[in-house]
Amino acid sequence: MKRVFLIVLDSFGVGEMPDAVDFGDKGANTLRSCFETGHLNVPNMQKLGLFNIDGVTVGERCENPIGAYLKIAEKSRGKDTTTGHWEIAGCVSEKPFPTFPNGFPREILDKLEKAPGQEVLCNKPYSGTKVIADYGEEHLKTGALIVYTSADSVFQIAAHESIVPPEKLYEYCRAAREILTGEFAVGRVIARPFEGDYPFTRTSRRHDFSLVPPKTTALDILKKSGKDVISVGKIYDIFAGKGLTEQDRQIGNENDMRITSEYQKRDWSGLCFTNLVDFDMQYGHRRAPEGYTAALNDFDKWLEKFIAQMKSDDVLILTADHGCDPCHSGTDHTREYIPVLIYGEKITTVNLGTRSGFGDIGATVLELLNADGKVDGESFAKSILI
Hints:
Elements: E1 3-9, H1 30-35, H2 43-48, E2 68-73, H3 81-88, H4 106-114, E3 120-125, H5 128-142, E4 145-149, E5 154-160, H6 166-179, E6 188-195, E7 201-202, E8 207-210, H7 218-224, E9 228-232, H8 235-238, E10 246-248, H9 253-265, E11 270-276, H10 278-284, H11 289-308, E12 314-319, E13 338-343, E14 350-356, H12 359-368, H13 381-384
Parallel strand pairs: 1-11, 1-12, 2-14, 3-4, 5-6, 9-10, 9-11
Antiparallel strand pairs: 2-13, 4-5, 6-7, 6-8, 12-13
Helix pairs in contact: 7-12, 9-11, 10-11
């Protein structure tokens, strides 16, 4: 194979994992919640085998699917974006990233205030839209940074672009990233710029500052072997740029589907790794099943055109990084199996059942692209090739 397009539908889980109760996620099922809106219309993912996946009890099974399909359980003890993507790339996280349900210790805030010389507000778990509604006016009056977290392992800084320009906000986030180490080493520090008047609007100039993966990933191996490793959307931030040869860091489903289509038209050899964040950021966390469903329908329309333009030595892999059931309690991610749908002219139709370890995807990508190297995962490439 010459090219693999690996597209992550961020948070599109297909049902609770056996240990979901340990995470407070018993009964979570992102796919089911979208289906039960009555508006899910994804004929192209249906053809790829979405509703044929073991354990999926909604939707109409396809009698003659055109792709290979399976679901995979996560080995890492977490359900966040960084952990999920790292494991997809073959890096299992033995320990979960720390979370701060009561806010960050004063010692961390003191260091942050000292480093950029800027006071902070809030320091609580919060919804990203609600926190700027509640603290935005005070931020405008005082200039203090809005610091908040969530159920995920994140340290988020929100600031109005008229008070703190995005590049300055990124500097503050880089300072926080250097401070948040050891027992405070959160998975991501996130810049959350917003604009306008109350109730304010978050802009597209978000940036994530992640830890560097602690060991070799499939991206590193592909790059070392001379392959192109192209990232679209949040991928660059999630991997802190490690193992990549080219990137487009715009975020949002519409942007990133368009950019992925543009890369499809270009001549290159290797991996294009895309994250579609809106499923999670706009709809999952906000518990908006109708919006999530509409986004899936829009993706499926784009998918039809993408598949039609694939070349004979292309492979498409659709998957997710965790769940975020828009009908579950709270606003957190949910511990779910991820779907894997694989299509290409040289890919056979097969149900691969249920596997353990997202890293099987990374290992499979390496084998499909003839790149030698070992990651945390077992390839299923031989099971899907004609």
